[in-house]
Amino acid sequence: MEEARSDSASQIGITLEEWNGSSSTKLFRTATITASSSLSIHRSANRFNHVWSRVLQAFVPEGFPGSVTPDYTGFQVWDTLQGLSTYIRMMLSTQALLSAIGVGEKSATVIGATFQWFLRDFTGMLGGILFTFYQGSNLDSNAKMWRLVADLMNDIGMLMDLLSPLFPSAFLVIVCLGSLSRSFTGVASGATRAALTQHFALQENAADISAKEGSQETMATMMGMALGMLLARITTGNPLAIWLSFLSLTMFHIAVRCLVLNSLNFERSSVLLQNFMETGQVLSPKQVSSMEHVLPVWITSVRSSNLKLLHRRVQLGVRISSLPRQQMMLLLKGAGDSYKKDKYLLVHRKGNVSVILHKDSAATDVLQSYTHGLVLANLMDGSKDLYSEGQSWMDKHYEEFLEKMKRAGWKTERLLSPSITWRASWISHTCDGKID
Known about the structure:
Layout: H1 2-11, E1 16-20, E2 28-35, E3 39-43, H2 48-56, H3 72-101, H4 110-135, H5 143-163, H6 171-200, H7 206-235, H8 239-248, E4 263-264, H9 266-279, H10 285-289, H11 297-303, E5 314-316, H12 325-338, E6 344-349, E7 352-357, H13 363-379, H14 386-407, E8 411-415
Parallel strand pairs: 4-8, 5-7
Antiparallel strand pairs: 1-2, 2-3, 6-7
Helix pairs in contact: 3-5, 3-7, 4-6, 5-6, 6-7, 9-13, 13-14
């Protein structure tokens, strides 16, 4: 009996399969291992998938595409093509800049070229610091717009370099303006890239996404430099060909149109609330993405003068002492009655709504206060008792609005806004005296 059991046990075999991949949905079988009379290893015939997956691991995040948002692929494809065209154009503009400085000419001096290059870089560094000071806190809340602005400013910088040989007397001014323009690009592009990386990361893999972005950019840089050198050699001595090549490669600024952001900023909040007040439904991030503007404010103001842009009529974090006396009187009389439970005050004047935040207000209070301000702005034209109607709408519909936004895929934890530096505090009390 023992011998029979031993023979039976020896007949039991296991087949092992070897799989490779970064996620359970992207695995490739590479080998099958069996043991009968002897060990047998059968390699998969289709080894191309295995090699290709290994190459992709250097350029896409682990677990792709399940580890990133759906808009990641479209954005990265267009962004890489845009980067490729940028480095090709950079070779043309650098060639023109070096020619203007005097590289290759006997009359040019080393100290003169060094001083010009130093002044150019110094202007760019100073411009970067000033741009960060004035716009640093606004980059997160308008990532799409500033990403496009960064690309356009980079184009202007290269255009200045390309123009520099044509105006020798104004050479230094032109190259300094180009350097100043590119300094804005460096700050805006870096800051918005960080914000977009956080948006793309679905599995807390922002570091991995950032690293793979670096690999993609390096590959685009190498290819762009090689193609740029070839193009520069072909177009040498032919200004018309240089300008046609430069301008034709400045057409890839559509990457931001692929982005579908689900965070709330001023404009997206305005679009969502206006649609909700009209239809009772909340739009999806994809629907809002096709409606929001990605161009700077002064351009969209001209193009959208006939639209009801509520967010342009609400000012968040207003300084109390900057208000007219009549508005301050309204606040002093109404703070204790209308807003006992809320950590913000609202006041309207000439079609605009000012929002004053309490010094202890949290992120949820900021979102609520801005939404309340949008409600007043929307009701302003046809309301007889604006504050009462606005408060009534908030009491009845605000929680429903928040819940529907969450179900639609929006992040409602906070409102992306520039840094709020002015706040206030107030204490409710009875006052029988007259205030002049």
